[in-house]
């Protein structure tokens, strides 16, 4: 994986963001298109697929289980589905690199198979909590060994799963999706109740492929023994990748950027809501629906930002966007306070600590708290920061340079390829003065 050949970014200060961009495809939807397309009956054609390492890791696992998958080629993937019972035992263990979505969703889906398999990942993934999926899966009857609640996961096939009624202890689309995927293989009904709404791409795609999903308030239910019918899936541009340019334009005077065909699923638009509360000038045009997911072009023009108390109900709706939002907070007038976001501590890195460290290095008053951060807007200085192999931290500090007093060096950036291949080229195209160097 990319982290073997590391990369640094050097980003020079100043500039503005101008133009039109279509950022790569949505990571969450790309993963799900491969998983559900593989289990469907018939041929699923995917367009706009994210050719990033995480989604490619999921694709490789299904190929290794005998699914004929053609592509990706410029975002096009053709999946010849094998049906619910058609996966074959892999010859080796699955290595899914940095990808939390792969390991957590696959743990549910693979618990329903007749064969054994093992899922492992890179250093960051090997430190991430898996009990949140293995505990409820065990209640369903799955047998999974972990290393003290962390990867690798050894899944013993041939278990007969039974539906459960489960109250999620945290707002997590990965855990919800894991249980819905296992629920397709379980006897009876599996119900998952969420403490707060999280991204619902799994539910939408299951329904779009003819598998009934019942949603009543915050409870989502599925009954085992159904089937999926192949369909065509148009993956929208990823709002989480678009975020870097939204924040870039929001902080750099004179900016005006339009991000094309971005997924604006209501469970993902916390970043738009939060930036608007901070005073950002954001407008949506060309709103449409594609394959059961809403999309729009998002235009962001520079406007001065002010610090806010971030509403806690927006946290799960912007969960991946906080590193970039912290840069917006650093450029805003006054104080921004985030609470209720302890989940950020168990992402690809501890995003509260790592962002606080980097912001402090650049001269910003940023105080981490147990479940959030307090940031006072100020003048961003130059300096050297570490992304801790976290793609979103690397891209966030890259855009910070637009408002910095000098160059920013960001170390350990190779994992940007997990979610945003071509970031440096696209960022340069719209006005960021960024160099990528090996080392
Ligand atoms: C994802 C869900 C989120 C998010 C991750 C992708 C998904 O994780 O952070 O990048 O595709 O379901 P949690 O559900 O653990 O919050």
TrEMBL record:
Origin: domain of life: Bacteria
Keyword annotations: Amino-acid biosynthesis, Aromatic amino acid biosynthesis, Cytoplasm, Transferase
EC number: 2.5.1.19
Reactions catalysed: 3-phosphoshikimate + phosphoenolpyruvate = 5-O-(1-carboxyvinyl)-3-phosphoshikimate + phosphate
GO molecular function per UniProt: 3-phosphoshikimate 1-carboxyvinyltransferase activity
Residues given in the record as 3-phosphoshikimate binding sites: 27-28, 32, 172, 174, 320, 347
Enolpyruvate transferase domain residues: 12-425
Active site, renumbered: 320 (proton acceptor)
Pathway given in the UniProt record: Metabolic intermediate biosynthesis; chorismate biosynthesis; chorismate from D-erythrose 4-phosphate and phosphoenolpyruvate: step 6/7
Primary localisation category: cytoplasm
GO cellular component terms attached to this protein's record: cytoplasm
Biological role stated in the UniProt entry: Catalyzes the transfer of the enolpyruvyl moiety of phosphoenolpyruvate (PEP) to the 5-hydroxyl of shikimate-3-phosphate (S3P) to produce enolpyruvyl shikimate-3-phosphate and inorganic phosphate.
Subunit-level organization: Monomer.
Name this protein carries in UniProt: 3-phosphoshikimate 1-carboxyvinyltransferase
């Amino acid at each position: 994986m990319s982290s073997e050949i590391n990369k640094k970014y050097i980003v020079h200060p100043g500039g503005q963001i101008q133009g039109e961009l279509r950022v790569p495809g949505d990571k969450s939807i790309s993963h799900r298109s491969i998983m559900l397309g593989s289990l469907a009956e018939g041929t699923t054609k995917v367009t706009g697929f994210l050719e990033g390492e995480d989604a490619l890791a999921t694709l490789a696992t299904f190929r290794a289980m005998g699914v004929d998958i053609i592509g990706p080629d410029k975002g096009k993937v053709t999946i010849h589905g094998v049906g619910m019972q058609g996966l074959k035992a892999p010859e080796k263990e699955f290595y899914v690199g940095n990808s939390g979505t792969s390991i957590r969703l696959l743990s549910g889906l693979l618990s329903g198979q007749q064969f054994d398999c093992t899922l492992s990942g890179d250093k960051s993934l090997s430190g991430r909590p898996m009990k949140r999926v293995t505990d409820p899966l065990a209640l369903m009857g799955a047998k999974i060994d972990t290393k003290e609640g962390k990867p690798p996961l050894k899944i013993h096939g041939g278990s007969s799963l039974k539906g459960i009624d489960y109250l999620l202890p945290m707002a997590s689309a990965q855990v919800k999706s894991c249980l819905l995927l296992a629920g397709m293989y379980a006897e009876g009904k599996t119900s998952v109740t969420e403490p707060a709404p999280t991204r619902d791409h799994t539910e939408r795609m299951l329904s779009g492929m003819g598998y009934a999903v019942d949603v009543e308030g915050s409870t989502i239910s599925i009954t085992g023994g159904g089937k999926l019918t192949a369909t065509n899936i148009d993956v929208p541009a990823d709002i989480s990748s678009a975020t870097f340019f939204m924040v870039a334009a929001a902080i750099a005077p004179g900016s005006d950027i339009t991000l094309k065909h971005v997924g604006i699923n209501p469970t993902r638009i916390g970043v738009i809501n939060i930036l608007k509360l901070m005073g950002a000038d954001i407008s949506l045009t060309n709103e449409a629906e594609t394959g059961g997911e809403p999309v729009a072009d998002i235009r962001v023009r520079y406007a001065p930002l002010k610090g806010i108390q971030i509403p806690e109900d927006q946290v799960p709706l912007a969960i991946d966007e906080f590193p970039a939002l912290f840069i917006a907070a650093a450029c805003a007038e006054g104080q921004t306070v985030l609470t209720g976001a302890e989940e950020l501590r168990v992402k690809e890195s501890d995003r509260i600590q790592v962002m606080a460290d980097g912001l402090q290095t650049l001269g910003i008053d940023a105080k981490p708290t147990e479940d959030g951060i307090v940031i006072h807007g100020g003048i961003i200085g130059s300096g050297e920061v570490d992304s801790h192999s976290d793609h979103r931290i690397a891209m966030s500090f890259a855009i910070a340079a637009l408002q910095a007093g000098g160059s920013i060096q960001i170390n350990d950036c190779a994992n940007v390829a997990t979610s945003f291949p071509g970031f440096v080229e696209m960022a340069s195209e719209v006005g960021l003065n960024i160099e990528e160097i090996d080392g």
